[in-house]
Write a structure and sequence with these properties.
- The structure holds two protein chains of two kinds.
- Chain A is an alpha/beta fold.
- In chain A, α1 links the parallel β1 and β2.
- Chain A has eight helices and eight strands, in the order βαββααααββαβββαα.
- By secondary structure, chain B is an alpha/beta fold.
- In chain B, a hairpin with a 2-residue loop joins β10 and β11.
- The relative contact order of chain B is 0.08.
- The chains are: A alpha/beta, B alpha/beta.
- Chains A and B meet through α5, β4, α7 and α8 of A and α1, β1, β2, β3 and α2 of B.
- Chain B: Its cofactor is [4Fe-4S] cluster.
- Chain B: Keywords: Iron, Iron-sulfur, Metal-binding, S-adenosyl-L-methionine.
- Chain B: It comes from Chitinophaga silvisoli.
């Protein structure tokens, strides 16, 4: 078996598809790959031209929604996502008609369901991001989403907070997105001390929010299970109302 | 200063929490002015959940809990001995903007006790919405509670700034209102609803011929009724809702299980359970009417005036109408498939799309998210029927209940899991 290693980026993955499609073989991320002594391994150079050829091939077969699902499923970073997507890709190109909604096919259904999971995580981030205002007038939020969803939430936050500078930092993947009132850039930073960087009114508003949160609860209807179902514990650490 | 705002917020959030609407979707207010916020059509966002499992999407507060009325079911009633407070316009604006900027909320839901008279109250509420929109260029979601008896002129102005307006019917029947809120009249509530409906239709017509028509309550109007305070049946409630959906083109009817707040002899007393299961069933019935093509008469009639608490209303309907089944998944109409217990609208859409590629079997249905343990009694697919025997309604009901019973036990009995 031949194994093709790529750098983890979407363009890298598409470049690998370009290599593997005719020759056969499997695609793996180079940083999580476990060496296999019976297989030959090849490194794949990320090649924007090749990536673009695969993507425009897909664009001819998939709707805008379908392309978005394909990209979303990739962002899941699941262990076997490259295999699933490669199989899906073959299924797409082997059929004349669009197979995007052929949910009876296992690969189509898997990609659709994975995209849905990623979409749900994206939606959660739109809900659970909590900005704190810094002295430099930047609204800053830490997150650690289950999937790599920052690329998917840029538009939402850019449209919504068009008149304030903000940064959302993915602690698990160690990169962030920063809006400077004009455009959104990817940023990396050292996460050390956070004391003393907040605006003087920041804690007041967090306290007011906590007061509101307490007042909005109806004690006679307590239903912790339902609360947890909608807002699993792993998200709590960044929510001021639950601190 | 800060202390006082905390106290007000605490009192006026507490008093507003019985309003259940938390919708923040369905509007169309794009952020085109590079201002703050976006109430663009799409999914609403629930930013948090309180320990009662309800979502927090809007800053839901009363402008004041001072009130000239004395409705038995309401915490803010005149005769109740509680702390009173009132926000200033600036305080509400400031809280809304600062909460919104931190991504705590989707917007503001402002209601109020009625002080002095309806117009006086409504005018202040409209002022807040106007300041947010014009001074702060706020494009987030605003839901204003329309005060019954307020003038048409104020309603029109409110509609220009709010995404949604709602008038609460309070109680599902007129008799209930007479008993528990004798100072209020159904007619006063219907009048603003009618005004809004006509205004929305008028502007819609104008929009067909004119280019520039101002937006007016883009997320429409809704209402709320309290459940379990009076003696009304589920049939009364659901048929009322169905009528109002049609007559006033409401976006939503909300059902709020009565939370006992006093020992008034006309009402369930303190310490009594909130009818949460009943409320849940009513929402399910409401969903069936709005999305699944059921009408009120099919769900509840004189022979069946109450929704079954043990099983959901769709299953309940199916068991009363076994002659409709089995339905063939691979050929039946979309809206017939939507009537099968255990199949939600998401699965319906998947089935319709997938079956045009190849006939579907059990595994595929399960993969798509169909709950076969319930659906299996009502369907056939390319492999025929899964349940060969003809069961009676009662037998199917028992079998389904037994399965869900065991699930319930697993969750609640630690002893059992030892073995």
């Amino acid at each position: 078996m031949d194994i093709y290693l790529y750098d983890g980026s979407f363009e890298g993955y598409l470049s690998a598809v370009f290599e593997v499609y005719k020759k056969g073989g499997v695609i793996r991320k180079e940083n999580t790959f476990i060496p296999d002594m019976f297989a030959r391994t090849f490194g794949v150079q990320t090649d924007l031209e090749k990536a673009d050829r695969v993507w425009s091939g897909l664009s001819k077969k998939l709707s805008a929604d379908g392309l978005h699902q394909y990209f979303s499923a990739f962002l899941s970073e699941l262990d076997n996502i490259e295999d699933q997507l490669l199989n899906y890709t073959r299924h797409i190109f082997e059929n004349q008609a669009s197979v995007e909604r052929d949910f009876g096919n296992a690969f189509v259904l898997f990609v659709a369901q994975t995209a849905r999971k990623v979409h749900r995580e994206k939606h959660r981030m739109e809900a659970f991001v909590r900005f704190q205002l810094t002295k430099d007038d930047i609204y800053f939020s830490l997150v650690s989403p289950d999937y790599n969803v920052l690329p998917l939430i840029i538009r939402h936050f850019k449209d919504r907070y068009a008149d304030q500078r903000w940064m959302i930092y993915d602690r698990a993947r160690n990169y962030g997105i920063y809006y400077d009132l004009e455009k959104v850039d990817t940023v990396w930073m050292e996460m050390d001390k956070q004391e003393g960087i907040w605006d003087e009114k920041e804690l007041d508003y967090q306290a007011l929010w906590q007061t509101y949160y307490k007042g909005a609860n109806i004690a006679g209807r307590v239903n912790r299970k339902l609360q947890l179902q909608h807002m699993p514990k792993r998200y709590w650490k960044y929510l001021p109302e639950l601190r | 200063m800060q202390e006082r705002v905390h106290e007000k917020l605490s009192i006026l959030a507490d008093a507003a929490k019985y309003d259940v609407s938390c919708a923040s979707s369905g509007s169309d207010r794009k952020n085109t002015n590079k201002g703050l916020g976006n109430a663009h059509p799409g999914m609403g966002i629930c930013h948090s959940y309180t320990p009662d499992g309800r979502c927090v999407s809007l800053l839901k507060i009363l402008l004041t809990n001072h009130c000239i009325y004395d409705c038995a079911y309401c915490v803010s009633r005149k005769s109740n001995d509680i702390k009173r407070a009132a926000f200033t316009v600036q305080e509400v604006v400031d809280l809304t903007i600062n909460f919104y900027r931190r991504n705590y909320i989707e917007g503001l839901f402002l209601s109020s006790g009625i002080f002095k008279d309806p117009d006086f109250t409504m005018e202040r509420m409209v002022r807040i919405a106007k300041d947010l929109r014009t001074i702060h260029r706020f494009n987030g979601y605003i839901h204003l509670k329309a005060i019954p008896g307020a003038s048409d002129e104020l309603m029109r102005e409110a509609g220009m700034y709010a995404d949604r307006l709602s008038v609460n019917l309070e109680l599902p029947t007129e008799e209930g209102l007479k008993l528990l809120a004798p100072e209020k009249k159904r007619a006063d509530m219907i009048q603003p609803m009618n005004y809004l409906k006509n205004e929305i239709i008028r502007l819609e017509d104008e929009r067909k011929v004119l280019k520039k028509v101002p937006i007016f309550v883009p997320a429409g109007q809704s209402t709320q009724v309290i459940v379990g305070a009076g003696r009304e049946t589920d049939k009364d409630i659901v048929h009322m809702a169905s009528r109002f959906y049609q007559q006033f083109r409401l976006k939503r009817v909300y059902y709020s299980g009565y939370v006992p707040i006093s020992n008034d002899a006309r009402l369930p007393g303190l310490g009594q359970q909130v009818p949460m299961m009943r409320e849940n069933r009513l929402y399910q019935a409401d969903w069936l009417m709005r999305f699944y093509g059921f009408n009120a008469q099919e769900l509840l009639d004189d022979a069946n005036p109450h929704l079954d608490t043990e099983i959901d209303p769709k299953l309940s309907w199916a068991l009363r109408n076994l002659h409709f089944f089995p339905i063939d998944i691979n050929t039946a109409d979309k809206m017939l498939i939507a009537r099968i217990p255990g199949i939600g609208m998401n699965s319906v859409n998947k089935i319709i799309a997938a079956r045009s590629f190849s006939a579907l079997g059990w595994d595929q249905l399960q993969q798509m998210g169909v709950q076969l343990n319930r659906a299996k009694y009502f369907i056939t697919c390319k492999k025929g029927a899964m349940v060969k025997k003809d069961y009676t309604s009662e037998q199917i009901r028992r079998q389904i209940l037994n399965q869900s019973h065991s699930k319930y036990l697993k969750l609640h009995s630690p002893q059992l899991s030892l073995f």
